[in-house]
Amino acid sequence: MSVSDPIIEQRPLLVDPAQPGLTGLDPVLARVYAARGIDDPEQLGRRLQELLPDSQMKGIPAAVERLLTAFEQRQKMLIVGDFDCDGATSTSVALLGLRMLGAAEVDYLVPNRFEYGYGLSPEIVDVAAQASPDLLITVDNGISSIEGVERAKALGIDVIVTDHHLAGAELPEACAIVNPNQPGCDFIAKSTCGVGVIFYVLIALRRALNERGWFNGQPPNLAALLDLVALGTVADVVPLERNNRALVWQGLQRIRAGQARPGLLALIEVSGRRRDRLVASDLGFAIAPRLNAAGRLEDMSIGIECLLEENYDRALTMARELDELNKERRGIEQEMQQQALELLGQLSLNDRELPFGLCLYDEYWHQGVIGILASRIKERVHRPVIAFAPGDEGEIKGSARSINGFHIRDGLDAVAAKHPGLLKKFGGHAMAAGLTIAAEDLAAFSDAFDAEVRRQLEADDLTQRILTDGELPEAAFSMELAEALRNAGPWGHQFPEPLFEGRFHLLQQRIVGQRHLKLVVMPEGGTLALDGIAFNVDTLVWPDESVQKVRLVYRLDVNEFRGQRSLQLMVDWIGVD
Questions:
Q1: Cα–Cα distance, 282 to 201 (Å, whole number)
Q2: What are the b/e assignments for 262-277, b being 16+ CB within 10 Å?
């Protein structure tokens, strides 16, 4: 397998860093903001008062009207969630929020991915019907559940769909659909994820209940749910545009102040992070994987119960269980990744060019981990990747990850249009999707998918481009700048954390934790020795004692170990200079 080194380019400035709003900042931070179109920190949108009004989100009036009926008639509501972190936080926020507002009876149900698959299927509706609900509320799913909603209607159960996934040609006939990505919705923050959508519904419902005199005294403060909203938003890797940044920033402030759910605080503890210094990347890389492990390997109910638990000691026990599941998930993933790399190596040994759109399958792969596997392989080969695992009898399930320039959900739609019947079901986003095909159709689908990717992308598109914020002078390698950058976000998808590049003398190198490369480097032409770490390196390549100079793409970070804090370079890419 031969994959070219990335092209490393400096991120262009979108505004002049000499703008009056930036002149009082560290010059590096001013440049970082200017490269993201921010000419004044006031534009970060961190205040709740700056959130877009819920009146712009189509479907909220109808959803609120149906919920008011449920409240006033003391009807039974059942939330139907999803088995990833966004789904778990959406379910928890919906349940906690409705109870805070005074719902008479509300519970939740999350389909087991291995038994029922994703979304409000007819089968999961039949399971839900055993609880005799009057109203089903989907969170983080439902926009493609045509048959499931029909089944619920046939059983006399109303359905409110709250979702954020892209809509297909047909919408379910629910009594209300709240989804910023449905046709005709004017809500401009299209990147709002599932937990953000249900949070908006709760805000509108609280206002309507208050207008009807529902509360005795002060209405409950739904801001208490923002820790979970922040977690779900970061975990789903949606773009952190201004509206999402406000939700995440406010949630982080509550977490840092200790005003978070006991379960979330327990997950922070088992992940080895400090609550008072938590940043968005900690939510994405430390907390979310532990929750996702439950949905990937067992049942997401474990994760949801952890988030719902009021007692810290009981929550800590659950968090430790989730931590063990995450360790198991990592072991499975590493084994699968090694198998996938061997498959890729065989392609290269046969002198075959890698497909533009790459499909991989192994009959022993685990359904719950193929999404992470696809992501890992995509990072190595920089092209759209779909990893498949065995599904129901005669079927295989795929998890797809894409690169900039290829909308994976639309790409699958194009394949389905050209090859009717080839895809049994699919759905997702621009960068991630899921699908089901017949096992016997894998070769035909692989060819069709590759052809569609080739139709949209050129060979040059398969060379990774890394945008950085340029090089740092030696004087900028300081704890003060690292702290300023850490707290200048929140950083996330499409509002990326500051990334720098430079050439260094490699003074020391060794593997720690089996797969991570610990470094000591010195800036070229400088005198300062700096610690660095590169996670998940190819141990067949590193360490290499013959290498004396390297080119690094890195982030400035603060390492905390046994009470000592020191500057550290978090290396995203390392190459021989």
A1: 27
A2: bbbbbbbbbbebeeee
**HEC states along 123-171?**
HHHHHHHCCCCCEEEEECCCCCCHHHHHHHHHCCCEEEEECCCCCCCCC
pLDDT in tens, 285-308: 999 999 998 888 878 899 999 999
How confident is the model over 157-203, as pLDDT tens digits? 999 999 999 888 899 999 999 999 999 999 999 999 999 999 999 99
Rounded Cα–Cα distance for residues 273 and 279 (Å): 10
* Chain length of the chain: 577
Q: How many angstroms separate the CA atoms of 371 and 296, rounded?
A: 9
Structure tokens at 134: 């009057």
Judged against a pLDDT cut of 60, whether residue 346 lies above it is answered with yes
Report whether 46 contacts 105 (CB < 8 A): no
**Is residue 108's pLDDT more than 50?**
yes
Residue 39's contacts (CB-CB under 8 Å, 6 or more residues apart) are 15, 16, 19, 21, 22, 33
Choose among 572, 417, 567: nearest CA to 478: 567
How far CA 125 is from CA of 84, 100, 319, 391, 485, in Å, comes to 19, 26, 30, 21, 47
Residue 349 pLDDT exceeds 70:
no
pLDDT at 1: 35
Alpha-helix runs per DSSP H in 419-533: 442-456, 479-486
Q: What pLDDT is stored for residue 348 in this prediction?
A: 58
In angstroms, the CA 495 to CA 490 distance is 8
Radius of gyration of the chain measured on its C-alpha atoms: 24
Average model confidence (pLDDT) for the chain? 93
Alpha-carbon span 92 to 176, nearest angstrom: 21
Local confidence band at 351 (pLDDT 50, 70, 90 cut-offs): very low
For residue 114, the model assigns a pLDDT of 62
In 324-422, beta strands by DSSP E? 358-361, 385-390, 395-401
Residue 507 structure tokens: 């003074």
Tell me if 201 sits within 8 A of 71, measured CB to CB: no
Helix (H) or strand (E) holding 227: helix 226-235
Hey, what amino acid is at 402? S
**How many Å apart are CA 277 and CA 70, to the nearest integer?**
41
CB 550 within 8 A of CB 537: no
For the chain, what percentages of helix, strand and coil (3-state, to nearest 5) are there?
45, 20, 35
